[in-house]
Protein backbone atom coordinates (compact mmCIF):
# COMPACT_ATOMS: atom_id res chain seq x y z
CA UNK A 1 0.00 0.00 0.00
CA UNK A 2 2.84 2.39 0.75
CA UNK A 3 4.40 1.62 -2.56
CA UNK A 4 1.30 2.67 -4.47
CA UNK A 5 1.11 5.94 -2.56
CA UNK A 6 4.76 6.67 -3.31
CA UNK A 7 4.24 6.10 -7.03
CA UNK A 8 1.23 8.43 -7.00
CA UNK A 9 3.24 11.14 -5.24
CA UNK A 10 6.09 10.72 -7.69
CA UNK A 11 3.71 10.87 -10.66
CA UNK A 12 2.03 14.03 -9.29
CA UNK A 13 5.43 15.68 -8.90
CA UNK A 14 6.29 15.04 -12.54
CA UNK A 15 2.98 16.50 -13.70
CA UNK A 16 3.37 19.62 -11.57
CA UNK A 17 6.84 20.23 -13.00
CA UNK A 18 5.37 20.14 -16.56
CA UNK A 19 2.88 22.94 -15.79
CA UNK A 20 2.90 25.44 -18.74
CA UNK A 21 1.83 29.05 -18.30
CA UNK A 22 -0.05 30.70 -21.28
CA UNK A 23 0.64 34.31 -22.25
CA UNK A 24 -2.17 36.65 -23.22
CA UNK A 25 -2.43 40.10 -24.76
CA UNK A 26 -5.43 42.16 -25.84
CA UNK A 27 -6.15 44.95 -28.33
CA UNK A 28 -9.13 47.26 -28.60
CA UNK A 29 -11.15 47.10 -31.82
CA UNK A 30 -13.59 49.86 -32.74
CA UNK A 31 -16.30 49.07 -35.27
CA UNK A 32 -18.46 51.76 -36.84
CA UNK A 33 -20.73 52.04 -39.84
CA UNK A 34 -23.88 53.54 -41.20
CA UNK A 35 -26.94 51.46 -41.91
CA UNK A 36 -28.54 52.72 -45.11
CA UNK A 37 -32.08 51.87 -46.04
CA UNK A 38 -32.40 51.70 -49.83
CA UNK A 39 -34.89 53.95 -51.53
CA UNK A 40 -38.21 52.48 -52.57
CA UNK A 41 -39.02 53.54 -56.12
CA UNK A 42 -41.97 53.02 -58.43
CA UNK A 43 -41.95 53.31 -62.20
CA UNK A 44 -45.18 54.28 -63.87
CA UNK A 45 -45.89 54.75 -67.54
CA UNK A 46 -48.13 57.68 -68.38
CA UNK A 47 -49.31 55.66 -71.37
CA UNK A 48 -48.37 52.03 -71.93
CA UNK A 49 -49.52 52.24 -75.55
CA UNK A 50 -47.73 54.48 -78.00
CA UNK A 51 -49.72 54.91 -81.20
CA UNK A 52 -47.89 56.13 -84.27
CA UNK A 53 -51.06 56.30 -86.33
CA UNK A 54 -50.58 56.29 -90.10
CA UNK A 55 -46.87 56.15 -90.90
CA UNK A 56 -45.87 57.04 -94.47
CA UNK A 57 -43.08 54.65 -95.43
CA UNK A 58 -41.35 57.24 -97.64
CA UNK A 59 -41.06 59.73 -94.75
CA UNK A 60 -39.49 57.39 -92.16
CA UNK A 61 -36.12 58.88 -91.28
CA UNK A 62 -35.45 57.15 -87.93
CA UNK A 63 -34.88 60.51 -86.23
CA UNK A 64 -37.77 62.95 -86.35
CA UNK A 65 -40.70 61.61 -88.36
CA UNK A 66 -43.50 60.41 -86.04
CA UNK A 67 -41.30 61.00 -82.96
CA UNK A 68 -43.40 60.09 -79.89
CA UNK A 69 -42.67 60.69 -76.22
CA UNK A 70 -42.32 57.62 -74.02
CA UNK A 71 -43.89 59.11 -70.91
CA UNK A 72 -42.79 57.66 -67.61
CA UNK A 73 -42.52 58.74 -63.99
CA UNK A 74 -39.88 57.44 -61.60
CA UNK A 75 -40.81 58.35 -58.03
CA UNK A 76 -38.78 57.37 -54.96
CA UNK A 77 -39.43 57.88 -51.26
CA UNK A 78 -35.88 59.27 -50.94
CA UNK A 79 -33.11 60.10 -53.38
CA UNK A 80 -31.40 56.87 -54.47
CA UNK A 81 -27.66 56.72 -53.83
CA UNK A 82 -25.22 56.14 -56.63
CA UNK A 83 -25.86 55.98 -60.33
CA UNK A 84 -29.15 54.80 -61.72
CA UNK A 85 -29.36 52.94 -65.01
CA UNK A 86 -32.14 52.71 -67.54
CA UNK A 87 -32.40 49.89 -70.05
CA UNK A 88 -34.97 49.40 -72.79
CA UNK A 89 -35.14 45.66 -73.44
CA UNK A 90 -36.75 43.79 -76.28
CA UNK A 91 -36.13 41.88 -79.52
CA UNK A 92 -33.64 43.75 -81.71
CA UNK A 93 -34.42 44.65 -85.30
CA UNK A 94 -32.58 42.26 -87.59
CA UNK A 95 -32.04 44.48 -90.60
CA UNK A 96 -29.23 46.66 -91.96
CA UNK A 97 -29.46 50.10 -90.43
CA UNK A 98 -31.50 48.84 -87.52
CA UNK A 99 -28.61 48.28 -85.11
CA UNK A 100 -29.78 48.99 -81.56
CA UNK A 101 -33.43 49.38 -82.60
CA UNK A 102 -36.45 47.36 -81.52
CA UNK A 103 -37.85 44.93 -84.09
CA UNK A 104 -41.51 45.10 -85.09
CA UNK A 105 -44.00 42.67 -86.58
CA UNK A 106 -43.19 44.03 -90.08
CA UNK A 107 -39.95 43.09 -91.81
CA UNK A 108 -37.54 46.00 -92.31
CA UNK A 109 -39.39 48.23 -89.84
CA UNK A 110 -38.20 48.94 -86.32
CA UNK A 111 -38.42 51.47 -83.51
CA UNK A 112 -35.41 53.56 -82.46
CA UNK A 113 -35.32 55.05 -78.97
CA UNK A 114 -33.79 58.40 -78.07
CA UNK A 115 -32.84 60.19 -74.90
CA UNK A 116 -33.21 63.76 -76.06
CA UNK A 117 -31.21 63.78 -79.30
CA UNK A 118 -28.99 60.78 -78.40
CA UNK A 119 -29.97 57.47 -79.94
CA UNK A 120 -30.08 54.64 -77.42
CA UNK A 121 -29.04 51.06 -77.97
CA UNK A 122 -31.67 48.46 -77.16
CA UNK A 123 -30.67 46.11 -74.29
CA UNK A 124 -27.85 48.44 -73.17
CA UNK A 125 -27.90 50.38 -69.92
CA UNK A 126 -27.74 54.16 -69.86
CA UNK A 127 -26.61 55.89 -66.65
CA UNK A 128 -28.58 58.86 -65.32
CA UNK A 129 -29.25 60.67 -62.09
CA UNK A 130 -32.50 60.76 -60.17
CA UNK A 131 -32.53 64.54 -60.21
CA UNK A 132 -32.02 64.66 -63.99
CA UNK A 133 -34.24 61.96 -65.48
CA UNK A 134 -33.96 61.70 -69.27
CA UNK A 135 -36.83 62.35 -71.66
CA UNK A 136 -37.41 59.28 -73.85
CA UNK A 137 -38.72 59.16 -77.41
CA UNK A 138 -39.64 56.42 -79.87
CA UNK A 139 -39.26 56.87 -83.63
CA UNK A 140 -40.01 54.47 -86.52
CA UNK A 141 -36.91 53.37 -88.42
CA UNK A 142 -36.59 51.30 -91.58
CA UNK A 143 -33.90 49.17 -93.15
CA UNK A 144 -31.37 51.01 -95.29
CA UNK A 145 -32.86 51.53 -98.78
CA UNK A 146 -36.02 49.62 -97.81
CA UNK A 147 -39.12 50.11 -99.91
CA UNK A 148 -42.41 48.64 -98.83
CA UNK A 149 -44.64 47.11 -101.51
CA UNK A 150 -47.56 46.81 -99.12
CA UNK A 151 -48.59 48.46 -95.91
CA UNK A 152 -50.08 46.99 -92.80
CA UNK A 153 -50.40 47.27 -89.09
CA UNK A 154 -47.29 46.77 -87.00
CA UNK A 155 -46.62 46.22 -83.33
CA UNK A 156 -43.67 45.85 -81.00
CA UNK A 157 -43.11 45.49 -77.27
CA UNK A 158 -40.29 46.61 -75.01
CA UNK A 159 -39.63 46.79 -71.28
CA UNK A 160 -38.28 49.85 -69.50
CA UNK A 161 -36.03 48.67 -66.65
CA UNK A 162 -34.60 51.01 -63.99
CA UNK A 163 -31.82 49.79 -61.69
CA UNK A 164 -30.96 51.77 -58.56
CA UNK A 165 -29.39 51.44 -55.10
TrEMBL record:
Fimbrial-type adhesion domain: residues covered: 30-164
Pfam families to which the protein is assigned, alphabetical: Fimbrial
Coiled coil ranges: none
Secretion signal span: 1-22
This protein's UniProt keywords: Signal
InterPro entries assigned: Adhesion_dom_fimbrial (IPR000259), Adhesion_dom_fimbrial_sf (IPR036937), Adhesion_dom_sf (IPR008966)
The protein's name: Fimbrial protein
Species of origin: Serratia aquatilis
